[in-house]
Amino acid sequence: MTPGVPAAAPSAGRPAPAAVATDLTKVYGAGETQVVALDSVSVAFARGEFTAIMGPSGSGKSTLMHCMAGLDTVSAGSARIGETELTGLKDKHLTRLRRDKIGFIFQAFNLLPTLNAIENITLPMDIAGRKADQDWLGKVVDTVGLADRLKHRPSQLSGGQQQRVAVARALAARPEIIFADEPTGNLDSRSGAEVLGFLRNSVRGLGQTVVMVTHDPVAASYADRVVFLADGRIVDELRSPTADAVLDRMKRFDAKGRVV
Ligand code: ADP
């Protein structure tokens, strides 16, 4: 365990977090064009919890997600998924970790048009040569309400249904953690609400851990916890957020994204 991060230490009956950042710093560029995207961020994401990351544009939300998911390298500090330290991992190990331990949901659904829903859901496992656990898969399909759509191709599904396929695909391999980047950004509010409801069900019903980047206070209100970033630092957090409380908190950033 890393010293200095009390939340990471497993206390009696409390499992270790699914992911932990410790003094995570990310600097882009050098000299005059240098940008400190993350400035010594420490945060733990508890297992079985749904966390939303919010903050003004340019505050470091995507960078934090990318560094935690092993999609980008860190400049200093540590990023851990479960017991695995990401910094210093060789590419091959990082690829395997992303494949086996992490689920991704993006704004674009990224489904293969020639495969039907269930083939899309099991594709990552098929590529990895892993057999799907049929019981689990059944639960996942039920959780996202897709049981009667499994033979449909993406073009035969609505946007909301396609994103539900993407959610099921992320859940299917039982990853340690799912990172979702503006998962409802391409959806109308009704479909968005459905997808968020299913994402929340996957946390409540299946014990999944989800970290979601969003700029939408309503989307954030589905989470158990909202972490606020400004200028590359964590400046606040809310538990059991309501959309109004999140909106109020967001209003306390000035036009440049600083805390006022
Ligand atoms: P957010 O997701 O909150 O909008 P980002 O994480 O995308 O913020 O960006 C944080 C800061 O880092 C911004 O100032 C952005 O311009 C900068 N940044 C992000 N990616 C790069 C990159 N690849 N090269 C240079 N600067 C970057």
Descriptive notes:
The protein starts with 18 loop residues before the first strand and ends in a 9-residue tail after the last helix. Residues 1-10 have low confidence and may be disordered. Helix content is 33%, strand content 23%. With 260 residues, the chain is α/β, with parallel strands linked by helices. It has a single domain (47-73, 85-250), classed as Rossmann fold. It has helices at residues 61-68, 91-101, 117-128, 134-143, 159-172, 189-206, 217-220, 243-251, and strands spanning 19-28, 35-45, 50-54, 76-81, 84-85, 102-105, 177-181, 210-213, 225-230, 233-239. The strands form two sheets. A six-stranded mixed beta sheet has the order 6-7-8-3-9-10, with helices on both faces. It has a four-stranded antiparallel beta sheet with strand order 2-1-4-5, covered by helices on one side. The protein contains eight helices and ten strands. The structure holds adenosine-5'-diphosphate. Residues 28-29, 35, 37, 55, 57-63 line the site of adenosine-5'-diphosphate (ADP).
